[in-house]
Amino acid sequence: MQLNEQVGRRLRALREERRLSLSELARRSGLGKATLSELEGGRRNPTLETLYALTTALGVPLSTALADQAGSAPPVPEARARASGDAVTALLTERHEGAGAVTEVFRVRIRAGAVQRSGPHLTGTREHLYVLSGTALVGDPAAPTTAGPGEHAHWRADGTHVYSAPHGDVEAVLFVRYPLAAGPYRTMAGPPTDHSAVPGAAPGTGPSTDAAAPPAGPPSDDGSTRA
After folding, report:
1. Following CA atoms 131, 134, 139, 144 in sequence, which dihedral angle do they give, to the nearest 10 degrees?
2. What is the model's pLDDT at position 2?
3. CA angle, residues 89, 10, 42, in degrees to nearest 5
4. Which residues have C-beta within 8 Å of that of residue 207, sequence separation ≥ 6?
5. Cα end-to-end distance, the chain, whole Å
6. b/e for 15-36, b at 16 or more Cβ within 10 A?
7. Which stretch of DSSP H or E encloses residue 126?
8. Which residues form the HTH cro/C1-type domain (predicted)?
9. Averaged pLDDT of the chain
């Protein structure tokens, strides 16, 4: 199955679980209803920006839309776990659930001269970028952080944030950490953890604790910094 078909099926299943109409999800995500219909039908390739808009509106981490099916575990097949945006190509390599959070690990490339502006993710989400090569300018658009090879930048991702590579392509590893209390999102192994924020949706069960805990992660202090 191609990525667009796989993602379309997952998005439709997530929308129907939450008893949302196409019109309501389109409104919440800021996308057109026709665009959303094409995405769910597998007739349009989703960009990274589109996937984030939809998964945030649905209250799920990005990797939930990239999974083959509920209950599948990482690693996700490479051909089905890659998405691109205005500046960033991201390959999902790992996903961990546990210790009160979902942590996604992406291998990313930021293309030289391009800028990607990402809208807010779920409340409490943080991103940590470890630069392997090149120089990245990332984080808060008003005060972006510069990080070169061997350096680390982190920022709150529940507000608008940017990625750019002003001096050449950047290769990096990106950790995205979503607190389980952030919203009514679905874990890979079960139904939505809490539907209280989605009007009309059925109540869910608690998060699964069977999955592996995330690896020892980067610091969790607020603000964008460089290490």
Report:
1. 130
2. 76
3. 75
4. 97, 180, 187, 190, 193
5. 41
6. bebbebeeebbbebbebeeeeb
7. strand 126-133
8. 11-65
9. 79
Q: How far apart are CA 143 and CA 133, in angstroms?
A: 22
Residue 86 DSSP code: S
**Contact (CB, 8 A) for 168 and 131:** no
The DSSP bridge partners found for residue 126 are 156, 177
Rg, the chain, Cα only: 17
- Compute φ and ψ for 57, nearest 5 degrees: -65, -30
3-179: CATH number = 2.60.120.10
Q: What angle do CA 181, 107, 186 make, to 5 degrees?
A: 25
What is the chain's pLDDT, residue by residue, as a tens digit (227 residues)? 577 888 899 999 999 999 999 999 999 999 999 999 999 998 988 899 999 999 999 999 999 888 654 434 444 444 457 889 999 999 999 998 887 899 999 999 999 999 999 999 999 999 999 999 999 999 999 999 999 999 999 999 999 999 999 999 999 999 999 997 655 444 333 333 333 333 333 333 232 223 333 334 444 444 445 55
Report the helix count and the strand count for the chain, using DSSP H and E.
5, 11
